[in-house]
């Protein structure tokens, strides 16, 4: 997401380890992309060459799901549990609930981070508008002072006695 800069747009490229283009966005202000990955190094690039005069502030987040999770590691705890099948069932239910809560918490953290990025972009726009309004208000005030001074001078000149008096 582009937070600040002229036009609030940027080009985005995502290349696979084989060099294939997976995502190519031109002049977008924000975007969410989901990609099935494979082993290797990916390359992503934010390109601002079309707008060399203005700089951009970019927010991006890279979310990697299912990293380091092996099915065997999660099942290892079962060999240490002794007892009835009812106990195994309860432990499986608890583990499932905990994993569900963990996934939901992680998703809510991601959404809050995204909302903070939206807030930062909107704040930058508001501050820019505030500066613009202040500048043009000062210009307007200056014009009003000049116009009032000219009007006072013109009114005074109307009431001056231009006749030469002889003494």
UniProtKB/TrEMBL annotation:
<feature type="domain" description="GOLD">
    <location>
        <begin position="1"/>
        <end position="64"/>
    </location>
</feature>
<feature type="transmembrane region" description="Helical">
    <location>
        <begin position="135"/>
        <end position="155"/>
    </location>
</feature>
<dbReference type="InterPro" id="IPR036598">
    <property type="entry name" value="GOLD_dom_sf"/>
</dbReference>
<comment type="similarity">
    <text>Belongs to the EMP24/GP25L family.</text>
</comment>
<keyword id="KW-0256">Endoplasmic reticulum</keyword>
<keyword id="KW-0472">Membrane</keyword>
<keyword id="KW-0732">Signal</keyword>
<dbReference type="GO" id="GO:0005789">
    <property type="term" value="C:endoplasmic reticulum membrane"/>
</dbReference>
<dbReference type="Pfam" id="PF01105">
    <property type="entry name" value="EMP24_GP25L"/>
</dbReference>
<protein>
    <submittedName>
        <fullName>Transmembrane emp24 domain-containing protein 5</fullName>
    </submittedName>
</protein>
<dbReference type="GO" id="GO:0005794">
    <property type="term" value="C:Golgi apparatus"/>
</dbReference>
<dbReference type="InterPro" id="IPR009038">
    <property type="entry name" value="GOLD_dom"/>
</dbReference>
<dbReference type="InterPro" id="IPR015720">
    <property type="entry name" value="Emp24-like"/>
</dbReference>
<keyword id="KW-0812">Transmembrane</keyword>
<keyword id="KW-1133">Transmembrane helix</keyword>
<dbReference type="GO" id="GO:0033116">
    <property type="term" value="C:endoplasmic reticulum-Golgi intermediate compartment membrane"/>
</dbReference>
